[in-house]
# Entry
Amino acid sequence: MGSFLASRLMTDIFGGLATGTVIALIALSLVIIWQSTHVLNFAQGAMGMFATFVGMNLVFHGLNYWWCLALSVVTGMALGALTERVLIRPLYGKPEINPIVVMIGFLGVLEAIIASIWTTNISMLPSPFSEIYYEAGRRTILVSPFVIYEVIVVALVLSGIALLFRRTNLGLQMRAAALSPEVSRLLGVRVGRLLTFGWALSTGVGTLAAVIVSTGQVLAPTNMDGIFVSAFIAAAVGGLESPTGAIIAGVSIGLVEQFILDFWSTSVAPLSGVIVLVIGLAIRPQGLFTRQVSRRV
Amino acid sequence: MIRVAGLSVTYGAVRALRDVSFEAPTGQITTVIGANGAGKTTLLRSISGLARAEGSIRLDERELLGMATEDVARLGVAHVPEGRGVIAELTVEENLRLGTLASKVPLAESLASQYAQFPALERRRRNYAATLSGGERQMLAMARALIARPSVLLLDEPSLGLAPQVTAETMRTIAQLCASESLTVILVEQNAKSALRIAHDAVVLHLGQVAAAGPSREIAADPELRRYYLGVAS
# Structure
């Protein structure tokens, strides 16, 4: 058993899962915003990093890791809510390109703000769990307590989000508000509050991903830039309407990247997202997991 | 009862409604008829708070003008908009669940009452609304509006796109519901003949103003109104 878990195949699978679950978490945060407001948030990574800096910097001042994590997520949720109220709300009903342009601009602004506030505080964010891989005999299994923590967090968040959208009245109202705001208001749905909540929830999830990405690394404003591209591709391939699709596509990108790294070349590995994008969109252009609703005419 | 007094609505340079006043009594159907562009839809949108208006709209003693649309809905004013407003990407049951937000009645009981009224919806409760026929969508829109047991029902062109037989069935259902639930119904219709047949009172709008108002039988019998609005020669 130990030699099987340490085999080349399983090593690649474990490595791919570790990267893929984080990609999936960020993709999920993009899907939440899309499902609740039909906006693509290109500043999601930077927003998560801003909240991570606010909360996790306190780790270096002696505060408990878990309190800092909670503070980061709460800050992310507040930033998301504020962004919706101030930057996005005036753009509802305007051309779809407007919020995209605004959020690309906001991405640059946030990264500049982070760099100007935390100029000298370059420190490695400590991990709450060991990142040392398990061993079976003399062989290394590419799984550490931190990887297990990462996978459990993603599984819990995915289950929670899926339950929220499919099984609760709040989730139903969020979907209705995004699909048909005027009809929703006629039914008594408080659309404005739900749009704000959707952004808060999404940025909270994005911040959780940013903390995981930054753990064991030097905190930098651009920590999320690379992985955000993969997450964006995962959201597009999985279907922006489908949290499950985003998760599966995100994990798939992680796995493809790991296998390319191992069997092909490190220089080709960053293209794994593009490879999944091309194959995914060729099979199903509307997204692999988007439910197609046939309309009766 | 809905009391509309001195209602005016302006879209830019266009005055969609000018000084419109009428009453829609409780437990009765008041139909609003008129040519395209007369301001019928704008009138309903003003009552629901979707259009900015001046004047007064009272539900019993409560002023509705200036209230948010969702608050008007939660007061018991159900509005089935033009095109029915069914959310195609949600299932039949999800559409119905949305209608229960303002209701204090348990969900299962609310759904059961609507499925008893519209049995076809129960058979299709897991289907997406996009897959329903025009008549079924009309049923769903009505059921969703009624599920929270509103006191006022605003209907905008319920016969639009329906076959004559389905239109007649829809009008019968509206009349039955009005009587059994003691609803205040304001019915906007292009199909004036069908609307006048079931309505107690009628308001004729012409270019945003009230051209005539009164018992629907009198409106239907007026030769001039018949010629202009009902398409009848004599």
Remarks:
- Chain A is about 70% helix and 0% strand.
- The mean pLDDT of chain A is 86.
- Chain A touches chain B at residues 169, 172-173, 175-176, 179-180, 182-191, 293-296 (CB under 8 Å).
- The CA atoms of residues 25 and 209 of chain A lie 6 Å apart.
